Amino acid sequence: MTAADRAVERQVVDALRVRRPRDSVLGEEYGASGAHGDVRWILDPIDGTVNYLYDLPQYAVSLAAEVDGRVVAGVVHNPATGAEWTATLGGGAFRDGERLQGSPQTELGQALVGTGFGYDPARRVHQAGVLHGLLGQVRDIRRFGSAALDLCAAAGGQLDAYYEKGLNPWDHAAGGLVAMEAGLVVAGLDGAPPGLDMVVAAPPALFKPLHDRLVELDAAGGP
Amino acid sequence: MPDAAELLAIAVEIVREAGDTARRMRVEGSPASPPRAPTPMS
Q1: Residue A5 annotated as binding site
Q2: pLDDT tens across A70-86, in order?
Q3: What catalytic activity does the UniProt entry give for this protein (chain A) (predicted)?
Q4: What is the ipTM score, two decimals?
Q5: Catalytic site positions of A
Q6: Cβ of A50 and B39 within 8 Å?
Q7: What pTM was estimated for this model as a whole?
């Protein structure tokens, strides 16, 4: 956690309290707060904190609005580049106003796949094993360090697909909606919703082969 | 039921302002603590 994480979260929470005083907020740094209105905001003040600390331009502010347990609006903003991804449920996904459609890739063997690693060493070892089993079956792997931006990259076809274990709601709420509204399947494994055990985002033609390989590799298992 | 487009407009405005704060703190060199690896966040 950095002072910037805390400062950004406080700024967003304060701004929401002024404009939407009845809503609650779930933030990475301070947890749940606020009233219990119709809307719950889900915030990651800086997704990609290590990149931020190292001055790598791959971090984002991510904010989603959830109504009755469904994310209905989301925005992911990269302050370093100015790029911005937005989506509303049923309204499509956009990068800087341009509609997103995901990758047309249909072969897993030709797919550029993004992923990320946890912070617990034991989990990393397990994730390395999964990667070992996947790397020979895809075009290549990318690990950029921001789940929100990875999901947006998949939405825009800069990655063909993405998977990661260990994501919290603030990591994938906004980016997941962007990916889904770009036409990707966003889900966990074996019919589970996207969550802590696994988030997979892929175009329909890639989802099943990637999903099945991840199941074979027990990607949702381990610590 | 709140309007999704209206919620998005609020979110965009707030996130841009928050992004300015993050970038400014980065430029001013006050993002805080030195990185430790592994750290419990991303």
Answers
A1: no
A2: 999 999 999 999 999 99
A3: a myo-inositol phosphate + H2O = myo-inositol + phosphate
A4: 0.93
A5: 28, 44, 46-47, 49, 171
A6: yes
A7: 0.94
